[in-house]
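User: For my dataset I need records formatted as: sequence, then structure tokens, nothing else. Please produce one.
Assistant:
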Amino acid sequence: MGPHFPNGSQTPKTVLLYTDSHSFCGVGRFNAALMSSLCTAGYRVLCGQKYEQTPLQTDLQNQGVAYHWFSYDPDQQMDQFARDQEPARDLFLRTQPDLIVFANGFPTNTYAAITAARELNIRYLIWEGHVRQEAFSGSAFPPEAVQRNYVQAAAVVCVAQQNLDVIRSHFALPDDFGQVIYTFAAKAFYKTPEAQRRIQLRAKWGVPADGVVCFTSAKFEPVKGYEILIRALENLRQTPLWQRLYFVWAGDGTYRAAVSHRLIQLDLKDHVHLLGHVWDVADYLDGADLFALTSFAEGMPLTLLEAMAKGLPAIATDVGGNREALEGCGEIISAPSDVEKTAGELAHTLAAWAVNSERRQALANAAKNRARDLFSEETIMAQHLALIKHLLR
């Protein structure tokens, strides 16, 4: 089958994805899926981002994505990135995109770039991976200018209703402003767990036959709430169940060394296995029985949807889109304004589920069905492609 040229033209439309994020998080994985889908649909796809060379970039380059690397790192020079229009303006003028997708890890990080696109009259879509009130109330940018960037966008997409409500409320925008398109769990997470792989993983982690493994996949940054997990472990260590409970944490980040040191200090290391960053999280979830995510803030976390797709009963704090994701198939614990309270709720739920395999199985079935119905990659990418096709008519 030959290439598809959008709108029946003889020249493929050019879509530039411009992001402040990286490949080691949910926003990065969304970006990769969207660019791959756009390539398959016949678009000319460009990407402006920080320099990386991971398996994701290699695969996408092979599919036809042309990367334009930033001259500096948004993570390290966030203020400069958010304020400096010239690099973005130069990129937009050189590449002449028909549509720019601003895929934001943090709302105001692309303020200068969005302003440049608006002033150049280039059509743009704003996709917000994570919105919270503090992003705007603590912003150095004029509220009316940030609002103007939103209002003049061709479309604004948030990954959770709660996130979109924050934007509407803060900028006094109407109820029909923006739309919600959820994120997704990739196909690999819907595969039936492999029994032999489960045995191998649990043996590697030192988990006894009657052990219960709680998995967490999140960056090692303070916002992900590892301190809450550690406090919950301290509570559980005082119970008879402790010898059966094991924890596996996948991720990397600036906080990892501090977390590892704290586990050693508290003599918890024997029950916690730190994997570091892994690309094949779906494979490691085969060894788990439960999933926990204790973030202080979220959009719609891919890791939570992935655990649901894998058939793991999940516990998550009441932030961002977690409640929307887990409705009827998991446990929502308090938003962590009171760390001790949230840690206590987590410990209580883990203890209850550890001794109730029937409850775990019922929640696992419900989670897998909900993920399949609402959060499949095919469904979510089809919604984004339909929107982009509409915007480029």
